[in-house]
Specification:
The structure is a homodimer. Chain A contains 14 helices and four strands. By secondary structure, chain A is mainly alpha-helical. In chain A, the strands form two sheets. A two-stranded antiparallel sheet of chain A has the order 1-2.
Chain lengths: ~350, ~350
């Protein structure tokens, strides 16, 4: 209930006056923040080079899964916007997951992780998929046994966690992943340049789209540094989305809080690099940004956009694609006879 | 039949005299060649930067598979010696392949590709797994439709194949992959440095192992630049290996030539970076190099190695690990509404 009030309040604040041309940048600066060029700090987990480098290895290491063929990067592919091909992810035993993989890029800026926000941060998130039977299907013991079987990994854990005995723990595995993922920010999108004062960083259509994004009320939920990712709202504030987009069985945040008001509530999708990440929504059934924008305006705002308005908003969303970090593909430690062999069984 | 004669001849040549300490390097230079520091030329397919860069993108792009989650790198993982976790590869629909993935590193130096040598070169090889129903399960049309749906790919094919109209063809897809794979050489292993004249590049145990490798007859088959990969021989020259290692149904090169003498004949395994690539043999059932060396000496040479001999040969094999190329993980073109959606069905 409080959430609905807060939507309404922000809607009023944003929409109550048409934003004048000259004030557009100022209004945008009130609602959004550019991605910093420096790597952000992470709570209770200082991001060191050693930790991030180790985390990169873990991120790409399929041997941490039971089968030996699924790594974090399988579903959060850094070459394709930090997500997989969709619609929803495929994991151990060719099982189909219920939801689309969220992107790891800029995930560090989200208020919580997963579509339902059930993990407060990336170190908590990192422990999920590796253990999920439908994803990597491993156990903490499989992870630490695998890592301890390779002296190069043990040495790198010692470097990354010099005060910890033993250095190789499931907690430190998660912390190293969080440290790497904190480096996966994508600064310098045209919209960041605009927020940093370059009025020419957006073209006229993108500015029109930005204005609409604020005027129509999109920015009520999609705001701050990640243009989303900061709060939780129902999918279908005004109108229930088609059941294909909002399957009845997945009640979203309700599974986390069991609060009736949290039925079909999800974390607001962060829109950074959204143009790289079709298909859209947690169900992954919408393959173009244009269609996604049309659906959102209808079900969240009760507004039917004109063709021009829709195109303008899409043009603005295209300005959210930033510079992806250069990643050197890691050479992983060599397995030993102590390394647990792959297991394909379900 | 000719092959057995040739084994015998080489065995005699290699084993008929114990190799004196001083002559070890000279003898090695007769049988083996160092990996060149330059990228090797490829027949009918000049390796240009544009082609190799494009090939790298294709190598890492899972959207070329029917499911959208399997890339070349899934089974030929560049982070783990160019192979997967084994024993044999897992592909579309969680199907288990019959054989272990061969490494892509230095594959350009092999006389032919696949365990049975059914592809004469890497451009022919590249067309196999992408179409195999048990691997990527795609079609040439899926590949070209996917590539043509993304303007960035079309532009890169134009740059890589400036004279071809249209530039995006299944042949050029394979040629770009071959060009990238030609760059996957691993020079400067201790053994290369030794072959290039640095007597101290191998330690005493490795030199003892090298001597045994030649004296015992291993080098009869495992020779030249890839320490193998140049010819075809039966697995079990002297003694039939255990059925677990040599499953009866897989008759190797016989399926290619239908010559009775080719039953259970395979391409000699190239031993470059072999220490990185457990489990061993086409069946992937042997998890340590030590055990693999013991098996090979028994079934191929009829020799029972002492513990010291076995350890020395393993030490020599460890000197075959070279410098892996640095690979920047490619950012792939963004899918469009024309890109074929993933299909998980079998």
């Amino acid at each position: 209930m409080m959430r609905k009030v807060s939507i309404a309040t922000v809607l009023v604040l944003v929409s109550s006056h048409a934003i004048a041309n000259d004030d557009l940048m100022m209004a945008a600066k009130q609602l959004f923040k550019p991605i910093p060029s420096a790597i952000p700090a992470v709570k209770d987990n200082p991001v060191t080079t050693e930790k991030a480098e180790l985390g990169k290895m873990l991120f790409f290491d399929p041997r941490l899964s039971a089968s030996g063929i699924i790594s974090c990067n399988t579903c959060h592919n850094l070459g394709t916007g930090g997500v997989d091909a969709g619609p929803t992810s495929v994991g151990h035993g060719w099982q189909k997951g219920a939801r689309r993989a969220p992107t790891v890029y800029n995930a560090v800026f989200n208020v919580a992780q997963f579509w339902d926000g059930r993990a407060p941060d990336l170190k908590a998130q990192a422990k999920g998929p590796v253990q999920a039977s439908v994803e990597m299907n491993a156990t903490p013991d499989h992870v630490t046994s695998t890592l301890n079987s390779m002296a190069d990994y043990v040495a790198k854990f010692k470097q990354a966690f010099p005060r910890d005995t033993p250095p190789v723990t499931f907690d430190n595995f998660a912390k190293a992943l969080e440290a790497f993922e904190a480096t996966l920010t994508t600064p310098a999108a045209p919209f960041d340049q605009y927020l940093n004062g370059d009025a020419n960083a957006l073209n006229d259509q993108q500015k029109a789209g930005l204005r609409l994004f604020m005027d129509k009320g999109c920015a009520s939920c999609h705001n701050a540094i990640n243009i989303g990712g900061q709060d939780f709202f129902p999918f279908g504030v005004i109108k229930k989305p088609d059941i294909k987009l909002l399957p009845a069985a997945d009640k979203g945040r309700f599974a986390v809080t069991t609060a009736p008001s949290d039925q079909y509530v999800f974390r607001v999708a962060p829109l950074r690099n959204v143009a790289l990440r079709a298909p859209y929504f947690h169900s992954g059934q919408v393959w173009t940004l244009k269609e996604a924008v049309g659906i959102m305006s209808e079900v969240q705002l009760g507004a039917k956009l004109s063709e021009t308005e829709n195109n303008d908003i899409v043009a603005f969303l295209n300005s959210l694609s930033g510079c992806l970090p250069k990643i050197e593909y890691p050479i992983l430690p060599t397995r030993t006879k102590e390394t647990p062999p792959p297991s394909l069984s379900r």
